[in-house]
Write a structure and sequence with these properties.
831 residues; alpha+beta; Arp2/3 complex 21 kDa subunit ARPC3; 5 domains; five-stranded antiparallel sheet
Amino acid sequence: MWQKVEQEVLEPIRGMVWVEKGQQAVYKTSKRWLQILNQSIFNWRMLLFGIGFLLGRAMILAEMAPFALPFAASVFVLRKERTGIAVFAILAGALTHQPINALFFISALLVYACLQKGTDLFIKNRIQSLPLLVFGSSLITRTLFSLFGEGGLERVDTMLALVEGGLSLVLTLIFLQSIPLLTYKKIPQSLKNEEIVCLMILLASVMTGTIGWQINDVSVEHVVSRYLVLLFAFVGGAAIGSTVGVVTGLILSLAQVASLSQMSLLAFSGLLGGLLKEGKRFGVSLGLIIGTVLIGLYGEGRAEITSTLMESGFAILLFLLTPKTAISNISKYVPGTREHSMQQQQYLKKIRDVTASRVERFSSLFQALSHSFGSVGLSLNEEESSREVDLFLSNITEKTCQTCFKKEQCWAQNFTSTYDLMTKIMVEQEDYGDIRDRKLKRDWEKHCIKPQKVTDLMKQELSQYKASQKLKIQVQESRRLVADQLMGVSQVMGNFAKEIQREQENHQIQEEQIKDSLFQAGIDVGHVDIYSLEASNVDIEMTIPYCNNSGIAEKLIAPILSDILEETILVTHEECANYATGFCHLSFHSAREYVVETGIASAAKGGAWLSGDSHSTIEIGAGKFAVAIADGMGNGERAFIESNETLQLLQKILQSGIEEEVAIKSVNSVLSLRTTDEIFSTLDLAMIDLQDASAKFLKIGSTPSFIKRGDQVKTVEASNLPMGIIQDFDVDVVDEQLKAGDILIMMSDGIYEAPRHIENIDAWLKRKIREIDTDDPQEIADLIMEEVIRSGNNGIEDDMTVAVTKIEKNIPKWATVPHYPKVNLNRKKAQ
């Protein structure tokens, strides 16, 4: 029973194992043979020998052989070490076809060697002189052969020699372009059209060496030429296919006049095959069959149609058997193909990733440097302070106590009391410049026999000690400033790296949807390019036929896009054509949800020309708008320079992408470090986001601001010292949510403190702002300025500046045009 079970169960399993082993063996064998075949075909020596052998057989009109010498000379210049293989292959090919061609080639090669040797004395670059040398060598050799031939030198022989020399010159230029493409281990990213044509001429020239080879009335050169046309028509489309057909047919017809009709067949088949490439390989093959039948019936008649169809059939069979990977590899280097586009995208992605990686490394470097500079605190710790005091007292002792006879008694027996007394004296002089504590003074006079000398020296040394301490603090503040700046740069570079790494999305479907929608609305559009469909960050470009400056983009296209994208779209750039047959180029972007209108009123102290106050309105990227007022210390030119430089520095830092708080701290550090004078500046900054109307207020020693919303007036204030007084401070940020119709009023201390007789200035300003009827920002600023001056006895006792900003909902000039049916676009939300 067990034997029966074993026979029924195990035998099929053993059979399956043997089948699997057989499949693995076949797979390994086929893979090994494919590797051997691949190495043989793409081996440079084998490839060079095969090309040289066929070019040695190639002739034109059965009399001229312009292929051999240009090929050998090009190999000599490009790959000198392979010249022997090329010469041997050409001689072998010539001997199998016409031995006289071998003698002609050897003679021409010797003439070229002599000319090249002489030319090297004057021209170092051989590539520049190579075509002319080949032309001269071919012309001289053919002329000598005709001169010493049977019929002597005749006019026809001279013409043939000139034609052969000219062809040799042209072929040399072509081989110099095409041979490197066969020798590169890695072909360049894409081939130019000229390089493709040169490569086709080389292949067609090689095919002329197969003329006369037939297998059962099937011409080998016809099969190979049609196979090349099929391959390139499938890869590059109608343009490449027809070009390859024309070039290949032209070379074959020059080599054999009987093949003149092949040029028409190959060109027409390449065109049809390229047009039918959407039908994959069978569509391209159908194009060759149609071209073969039509040209065959027209040119050769029905008698020869059978052999021509057989040749096309063999070419189609080779084409169908060509591996998909081989066709894909060829497609990567032909411009316009899908594989080439993917290859380019991968290359660009690699470049983008490498760039982003380097930017990220720089960002990490700046971050590490920032941590390194910021590791040292601004204030000295207790141990460091104690060490500084010890060094100071040691210096005093060295200059006074070293020669005193009571040194042993003071510093050995009574060290603690001596040290405490000198420390207290140091503190007294540091705080008051003298010893005010009488008890301390009496104790010191009892303790020391030279009290006045010690205190005078301590007073002198104390000034240097203070200067040293101040210098150390400034150095540490400089380190903090550098640390903050490096951290800001690190953040900017990190954000830039993220922007680089963003993939460019394919919006082909959305582009077609928008184009169809505009076409249904009666607008003819050339093409649509979508760069971004992210909400609030739309970026679209398109071309339309000549519009004669009718404003169709602003009046019709932008409103339709606004309806499709469900947000307001504006025309940001319009370039109209200069002639009726041209195209107009348009750019569309998302409109901001809110817009601002500002009004400024300013007056200098005493009616002078130059005010110490400065103001600025700053357009910052990412849809932000900033209003700033800076007030320099004092009045006049120096205060103006101080406040103006503060705003300019702040504007540059903000526009670089650094955050507001870091920017203000950086400006404060610069103001506190760049001079020893007590110069400071106040700053009132409002950052408004035009997408959601949110606002950030950063007030550095500035007066309160006011927000008017209808009949309500709200105060915005923060407690921060002016910039430049202390090195390190925290910025107090006040967040407010604004609404459409809100009016923001900012002012300098000259406005806020002018009405000196009014006790509650906040309530007075709120009442005056509430009583203003107009909503025009400039009128509001002028009215506030006028009211403040009148309330201050009609005098301008300080620099005055008031900035009024009105926030409104952005209403486009042209209303949205509804479009039906509605288009559903796949879009990203704003980040």
